[in-house]
């Protein structure tokens, strides 16, 4: 099929052939393997920085150095496997945020995505510039992730006032996403907070900043996007691209264990549930025995020598979320669980990234010419 209707995605001076960003899945689910495969198909592949040091043997004794070392390794590996666009997702709430941002810039990541908190700090502006002219040579684009027009307004206003610049793009994530959600529990199923509703509101908020700074600021739709028809729908609503994570779990190139991927294949709609995460946010996950135990009041003993997330309440946490997610990534689901988007139950097979992207583009094209 000739994909003549597929728009390209341009963020600053970076242009990719298809308007798909692979969503970051932390604690080892989206690393160099998945990110490079997506980049090779013309999208933007994203390495998730949170908990990445769990891959290193000294994580429990030297977590900051382990995180930096692991992130550097994964960006280098991705660069060896692709000439395409590679981004790094760094949670604002991470205690080693600055260190990880420095690594991403040092290794020439094309983009830094900022989630899990208000992205008021510009990680490119805040790097230690040595030599002094280094900042002018940094090409890394910065893209905050928001879940409301209010959050977008706060970020853009703050950047304009304090940096005399604004982010290069913004991702609007709706309540159907997997993992930690930027919504209160009562908002998740409220149609007033649906992606279709908040997307145009964010577009409206950033319009004056596009005019003031004479800059294109693409808005990316995320959360619950599953098919090429969904991509077409949100581009028709004004998005310049989409971010998708759940679909990319069930690919051969995804960096998770086969047991993790099979949890998606076996998942029923009723198993997708909203949990209270130890980091103080609701999250969407696949219900299993581990979560059942936690819900019943069973404590999962752990020691926390590093406090990776600023928002984690160690005294009240019934388990360590990074450890639980690491266990799941490795296939030990009796000691962990899997985050997943609201449409995970629709996945029925594991395919290559190439096949998945091809399917999405065919579906998009059919919708465009209908």
Describe this structure as you would to a colleague.
With 370 residues, this protein is α/β, with parallel strands linked by helices. It folds into two domains: 9-256 and 349-369, TIM Barrel; 260-335, no CATH class. Helices cover 35% and strands 15% of the residues. The chain has helices at residues 32-40, 63-81, 97-106, 134-137, 149-163, 195-212, 228-236, 246-249, 258-266, 289-295, 321-330, 353-369; strands at residues 9-11, 14-16, 20-22, 44-48, 85-91, 111-115, 141-146, 170-173, 179-180, 219-222, 241-244, 272-276, 282-286. It has an eight-stranded parallel β-sheet with strand order 3-11-10-8-7-6-5-4. It has a three-stranded antiparallel β-sheet with strand order 9-13-12, with no helix packed on it. The protein has a two-stranded antiparallel sheet with strand order 1-2. Strand 12 and strand 13 form a beta hairpin. Helix 1 runs parallel beside helix 2 (63-81), helix 5 runs parallel beside helix 6 and helix 7 packs across helix 12 (353-369). The chain is globular.
List keywords for this structure.
370 residues; alpha/beta; TIM Barrel; 2 domains; 3-stranded antiparallel beta sheet; 35% helix; globular
């Amino acid at each position: 099929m000739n994909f003549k209707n597929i728009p390209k995605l341009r963020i600053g001076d970076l242009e990719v052939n298809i308007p798909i960003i692979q969503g970051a899945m932390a604690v080892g689910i989206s690393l160099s393997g998945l990110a490079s495969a997506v980049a090779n198909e013309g999208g933007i592949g994203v390495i998730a920085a949170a908990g990445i040091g769990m891959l290193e043997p000294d994580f429990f004794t030297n977590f900051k150095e382990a995180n930096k070392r692991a992130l550097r390794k994964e960006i280098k590996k991705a660069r060896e496997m692709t000439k395409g666009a590679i981004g790094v997702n760094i949670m604002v709430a991470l205690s080693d945020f600055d260190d990880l941002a420095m690594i991403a810039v040092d290794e020439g990541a094309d983009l830094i995505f900022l989630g899990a908190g208000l992205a008021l700090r510009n990680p490119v502006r805040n790097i230690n510039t040595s030599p002094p002219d280094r900042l002018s040579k940094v090409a890394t684009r910065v893209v905050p992730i928001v879940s409301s027009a209010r959050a977008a307004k706060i970020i853009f206003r703050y950047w304009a006032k304090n940096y005399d610049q604004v982010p290069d793009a913004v991702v609007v994530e709706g309540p159907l996403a997997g993992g930690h959600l930027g919504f209160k529990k009562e908002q998740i199923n409220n149609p007033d907070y649906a992606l279709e509703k908040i997307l145009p509101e964010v577009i409206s908020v950033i319009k004056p900043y596009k005019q003031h700074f004479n800059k294109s600021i693409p808005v990316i739709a995320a959360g619950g996007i599953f098919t090429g028809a969904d991509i077409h729908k949100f581009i028709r609503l004004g998005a310049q691209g989409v971010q998708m994570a759940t679909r990319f779990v069930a690919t051969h190139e995804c960096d998770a264990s086969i047991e993790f991927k099979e949890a998606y294949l076996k998942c029923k709609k009723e198993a997708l549930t909203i949990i209270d995460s130890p980091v103080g946010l609701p999250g969407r996950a696949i219900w299993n025995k581990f979560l059942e135990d936690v819900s019943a009041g069973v404590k999962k003993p752990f020691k926390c020598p590093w406090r990776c997330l600023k928002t984690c309440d160690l005294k009240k946490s019934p388990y360590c979320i990074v450890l639980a997610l690491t266990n799941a990534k490795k296939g030990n689901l009796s000691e962990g669980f899997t985050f997943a988007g609201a449409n995970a139950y629709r996945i029925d097979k594991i395919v290559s990234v190439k096949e998945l992207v091809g399917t999405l583009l065919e579906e998009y094209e059919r919708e465009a010419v209908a």
